[in-house]
Specification:
Elements (H helix, E strand, L loop, with lengths): L2 H16 L14 H4 L25 H8 L15 H12 L2 E2 L7 E2 L11 E7 L8 E6 L4 E6 L3 H8 L9 E8 L1 H7 L2 H24 L3 E3 L5 H8 L6 E9 L1
Antiparallel strand pairs: 1-2, 3-4, 3-6, 4-5, 6-8, 7-8
Helix pairs in contact: 4-7, 5-8, 6-7
The structure holds flavin mononucleotide.
Length: 248
């Protein structure tokens, strides 16, 4: 990463760090209108081609069905399932599994698109609820399609990162990070945007897969960046935290 890029990412990360979750957020009753209202753009002066919603009622595609059902669930006690090897295989298969062509180094594809096939994203999972596996932090090794057990994780530490009860009262937390240099060597500052776009693709795969196998998920947008970097033992001049998602 060039010095210019490093400086840029450092600046962005400082901004992210400054939006930490608070112990007690603003109560909904005190939210301003601009936090609640959903806005829509419209061109009154242009003619409209109204699309047909009824096709959604008699479609035969289970994909459309799954897309329509997808939602961010309020994670409740009875949603906390034991994570098993089967469930994890499904999650990581849908989010990042590698599809090898002639040469794994130059010709392999994944379940999501990546700008210039640079694949800067890495996946981790903190497993809280399981009977058959070891609880703690794992890294997903894409090449081997294997979860690498890293270490135990203290729930209090995780709570202090997200300050939301469901972040520890859940089956696990998936954390998408980016080794930004893989992409910035080619795309410079644009790599930052690309990583977020790519994480969104993985996120949607996780949502749809979860919906189809009966898991619930919910993203965690606000987090203490420094503390989470510490839990993963990564450094944000190399690897940035992009997108944590709770599954249950
Ligand atoms: C980037 C991002 C960050 C989010 N962060 C949080 C969060 O910190 N806590 C939370 O409860 N929900 C979070 N959500 C979930 C949104 O509140 C949810 O997507 C929105 O209310 C729309 O609901 P739906 O996903 O069920 O359609 C986040 C969603 C996204 C995409």
């Amino acid at each position: 990463m060039s010095i210019k890029d490093k400086f840029y990412f450092f600046k962005l990360n400082k901004k992210i760090r400054s939006i930490k979750p608070k112990k007690k957020g603003t109560p909904v009753s005190k939210w301003p209108e601009s936090w609640k209202r959903i806005y829509f753009k419209s061109y009154p002066r242009f003619p409209k081609l109204y699309l047909d919603k009824s096709i959604l009622n008699n479609n035969e595609s289970s994909l459309i069905d799954t897309i329509l059902k997808r939602k961010s669930y309020q994670i409740k006690k009875d949603h906390i399932h034991n994570l098993t090897k089967d469930i994890l295989s499904n999650i990581f298969l849908s989010s990042a599994i590698i599809n090898v062509g002639k040469d794994i180094k130059y010709d392999s594809r994944r379940a999501y698109p990546s700008g210039g096939s640079r694949y800067p994203l890495e996946l981790y999972i903190i497993i809280f609820k399981t009977e058959t596996l070891k609880k703690g932090l794992y890294h997903y090794n894409v090449k081997l399609n294997a979860l690498e057990y890293m270490w135990e994780i203290n729930k209090k530490e995780v709570y202090s990162v997200f300050k939301q009860d469901f972040s520890v009262k859940c089956s696990g937390v998936i954390i998408i990070t980016s080794i930004i240099n893989r992409s910035s060597v080619k795309y410079g500052e644009r790599a930052y945007t690309f990583s977020h776009i790519e994480a969104g693709h993985i996120g949607q795969n996780i949502y749809l897969l979860s919906e189809s196998i009966g898991l619930k998920c919910r993203p965690l947008g606000l987090f203490d960046n420094k503390k989470l970097l510490g839990i993963l033992d990564i450094h944000n001049n190399e690897e940035l935290i992009v997108y944590p998602i709770v599954i249950s």
